[in-house]
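User: Teach me something about this protein's shape.
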Amino acid sequence: MPGLNHAIAVTKARSPEIVPSVQDTVRQLSGIYFEHALELEKLAHSTEHQALKESIVERLRERHLLRREPFANLLAELHMQRKTRSPFDR
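Assistant: First, the predicted structure itself:
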């Protein structure tokens, strides 16, 4: 993910107390994306009929979106917390 290290560095500087939450959430999302990519790769190399593959891809995509949604929402919430904090908050 381009820019992820920069985002974490900025978060550390502005809101060090939420860094572990951000890192854990990013780690969870990375795992979800990795598993999804593996599933798609396995399917691409399977001998299933193309119409069935397309149906399976759609179900995998829906499952992927459902799995990632709570983590993406949490990351957005953490981002908003960081943005709304005053530099004088501690």
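Now, about its shape. The chain has a mean pLDDT of 85. The chain has one domain: 19-81. If you'd like, I can walk through any region in more detail.
User: That's plenty for now, thanks!
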